[in-house]
Amino acid sequence: MAGRSDDRDGISRRRFLRVAAAAGGSAVAGHALAQDAALQSLIDQNQQNDLGQGFDSGLRTITMPQASLPTLSPATVQHTEQAIHRYEGIISRGGWPEVARADRMRLGARNPGVVALRQRLIAAGDLDANAGVSDIYDSYVEAAVRRFQARHGLNADGVVHAQTLKALNIPAAARLAQLRANLVRLRSMSGNLGNRFVVCNIPAARIEAIEGGVAVSRHTAVVGKPDRPSPDISSKIVEVNFNPFWTVPVSIVRRDLIPKMQAEPDYLVKNHIRIFDPRGNELTPAQINWYSEEATNYMFKQDPGDFNSLGSLRINFPSKHGVYMHDTPLKNLFGEDMRFHSSGCVRVQNVRELVNWLLTETPNWSRQEIDQVIKSGERKDAKVAKPVPLYWVYVTAWATPDGVVQFRDDIYNRDGLGPLVTTSPG
Q: CB 3.0 to 4.6 Å from 100: which of 37, 113, 285, 394, for a disulfide?
């Protein structure tokens, strides 16, 4: 009977691991035979090492980041201070090893580089030390890589891609310096931010709607390019524009529109952008010399519609920088790890959900009414009944009460560490 039980256990492990390999994106028919050998090695190793229910229970103490915990709170300061002590300890123990580049660093693979990968993940607390240091990329390693990716704002697919590898190989001393630099920022923002407020963390390209100390919604964002950075902001959201016009800023006319018209003379017509002189008279593109600065003397206005650069919604707040938050027709950008494409304004994924929350206390703007106005294409504005505090901040390292330490690229080089803490290509 015991033998049959062992056989069933082996079959169960084999079936589980094959399903897990498929979930990791490696169950392509052409690779099945090659995977079987690696998976069988993993099964045998797990049986030899007796990694059973107790080991699984231990790994459950290593959690993924909790979505409801806000980036800015008094608790963030306290836990970032604790993270600094943890990283000082990591450095005193020798830091972590460099992970070599390898072709196959995914579930089911066998590679000498997995040993260093395990050591790296164990050092930072993403993988339980009981997982061992074999060269098999098993389901525990994949889960640890996913957690590491989530902590660093990367697509959590459990595969060691180029950007994940770069993040893994940033030295522990650099991460400690990052935590110390950001603790100063966090302390300056730990005051009373309000019961309801919105935070855009620029390096994370992420927006949080906070209510009662809880992040009630999170939104992926697209923020300013390094040469056109989004500024730090402390303001209040006062208005929402539905189906807005877009008036092209002079800086974009000079840097983008003039070169675009030189290359594509029909660009304005195709994108429904009209030209007006200072008296409000409409001009045609042919009336302007595009090989001069003449165009900067005119107003360029894009009509509302699906093609509009602001999409269907714009969120306004007082700012000396002339920036705002808005929808976008380019939804594909939200799927990228590096979302630094704008000229300073912030594009918001699922912006309708954020607007619905902003207008919760504003009469005559229920979710149904919001949807109807957007669908109609009609130009309308909604004044926010109780202006909502807004903060655009620059935080590249912080820790939350769940014990998770988060890092993001220092995309604007404000941490003073140069390219050392940047994983972006180039």
A: 113
